[in-house]
Specification:
Layout: H1 7-15, E1 30-31, E2 34-35, E3 37-38, H2 51-65, H3 69-72, H4 80-83, H5 85-92, E4 99-101, H6 105-116, E5 125-129, H7 134-146, H8 151-154, E6 155-158, H9 169-178, E7 183-189, H10 201-210, E8 214-218, E9 237-240, E10 255-258, H11 305-321, H12 323-344, E11 351-353, E12 366-370, H13 374-383, E13 386-387, E14 389-391, E15 395-398, H14 407-422
Parallel strand pairs: 3-13, 5-6, 5-7, 7-8, 8-9
Antiparallel strand pairs: 1-2, 4-10, 9-10, 11-12, 12-15, 14-15
This protein binds pyridoxal-5'-phosphate.
The site of pyridoxal-5'-phosphate (PLP) has 13 residues, from helix 6 and helix 7.
Length: 423
């Protein structure tokens, strides 16, 4: 599409947007009484207006039924983890038996590393991207130490080439090949939280498997943002949180995926709890853990129903919008933002966009690397009612989210950004 740098053009795109009605399904935060430009859905997704109804229904069942809500509730709490499976399977390209909502992201990462990171004396290394999200780094490091290895010579962090901002797939693949005899686990972010790079899940998984390693992904910034095909791409395991693009609210219940081919690997080491035990006799409270097949066998505890209700509310919107529509709009929306930013600073004197310009290698987020005065510019944005995200040392992350952001948001942002640079 031939973009134009005018408000009229942005408004025309909004009028023609098949998803335009979804903005009104969300509460858009206000700053000093004025609707903000909310570009932080990559950090905390907005609240669907329907969330309250879903929560209220559970509160009502609890008030009226007490413990009986487990069986007689509108959505019986005993089976609550099943209700989000369809939506999660759609978003991850998985079978319903491969996904479940449970715990928090970092907890799930540990649980699945217990099963899938099983280092031996000769095969113990982990390959990941340099600068992974802190919690992931801590998880990797502590897992490595738990098995008696030294993080420094066990965790291989891949950095972009000199003068480049993001990793080339060919370099990831060759690093995997280079370490193949000692490699236990390849684990990457789906979309890198800092640069916004969408890694090539298929190629990385293939390379990892060829090397004889297990391959996992942290989809915190990928789920609800980019098209995923975990089942088809043979990914071994994945984890995510649901408060970013999934809009399930602060501290939402997270999720996990284990590929079907591991569904009956009952001999994998795992940490067990009663919710992973065979459903039929879970309440007999007998000795001897028998895991359920599939990801359900990794559950520990009974499902958190209120966070589960909030997740359901949001998943319903994704299903109504349709992922094809969503990702098509996302390409346009972020493409428009990139076009406008490039018009402001075509030569990259003031800032660079770290995020790949290749549309297949990114989701909706653009990470703007400020060459100077970054903090001042960010403050000016905030003052002009833009809610964006600052990352040390000098990156402004902006994420126009296709479910609720508009082309006019993008246009207005670029005008405000231009003024902020001048000030
Ligand atoms: C947001 C995020 C987390 C947060 O972890 P929690 O366990 O949900 O607190 C971890 N890893 C990545 C890559 C993230 O983007």
């Amino acid at each position: 599409m031939q973009f134009e740098n005018t408000l009229a053009f942005a408004r025309k795109l909004d009028r023609n947007d098949p998803l335009k009605k979804f903005r009104n399904a969300f509460y858009i935060p206000k700053v000093k009484g004025k609707t903000s430009i909310y570009f932080t859905g990559n950090s905390l997704g907005l609240q669907p207006k329907s969330t309250k109804k879903f929560l209220d229904e559970e509160l009502t069942d609890w008030a009226e039924l007490g413990v009986e809500g487990h069986v007689h509730g509108k959505r019986p709490w005993l089976y609550y983890h099943k209700f989000t499976k369809k939506g999660l399977a759609l978003l991850t390209g998985a079978k319903t038996s491969e996904v479940v909502a449970m715990n928090h992201l970092t907890v799930n990462l540990h649980l699945l590393m217990v099963s899938f990171y099983r280092p031996t004396k000769s095969r113990f290394k982990i390959i990941t991207e340099a600068g992974a999200f802190s919690s992931d780094q801590y998880a990797f490091e502590s897992q490595v130490k738990f098995h008696g290895f030294e993080p420094d010579n066990t965790i291989i962090e891949l950095k972009p080439r000199e003068h480049e901002h993001t990793l080339r797939t060919e370099d990831i693949v060759s690093a995997i090949q280079q370490h193949k005899d000692e490699l236990a686990l390849v684990i990457f972010g789906g979309v890198q939280y800092y640069t916004g790079q969408f890694f090539d899940i298929q190629k990385i998984t293939e390379a990892g498997h060829t090397a004889g390693a297990i391959v996992g992904f942290d989809l915190a910034h990928a789920i609800g943002n980019v098209k995923l095909d975990l089942h088809k791409h043979q990914v071994d395991f994945a984890v995510w949180c649901s408060y970013k693009y999934l809009n399930a609210g602060p501290g939402a219940v997270a999720g996990a995926f284990v590929h079907e081919r591991h569904s009956k690997s009952f001999d994998l080491p795992r940490f067990a709890g009663w919710w992973g035990h065979h459903e039929q006799d879970r309440f007999q409270m007998k000795k001897g853990f028998i895991p359920m097949a599939g990801i359900d066998g990794w559950q520990l505890s009974n499902h958190p129903v209120l966070p589960g209700a909030a997740l359901l509310a949001s998943l319903e919107l994704f299903q109504q919008a349709g992922l094809k529509n969503l990702f098509a709009k996302s390409l346009l929306l972020t493409g428009y933002l990139e076009y406008l930013l490039n018009q402001i600073d075509a030569t990259g004197k003031i800032f660079n966009i770290l995020t790949p310009s290749d549309k297949k290698s990114r989701g909706c987020q653009l990470s703007i690397f400020m060459k100077y005065n970054g903090h001042k510019v960010f403050k000016a944005l905030t003052k002009a009612d833009v809610i964006a995200d600052w990352r040390e040392p000098n990156v402004i992350r902006v994420a126009p989210v296709p479910l609720y952001n508009t082309f006019e948001d993008v246009y207005q942002f670029s005008e405000i950004f231009k003024k902020a640079l001048r000030a």
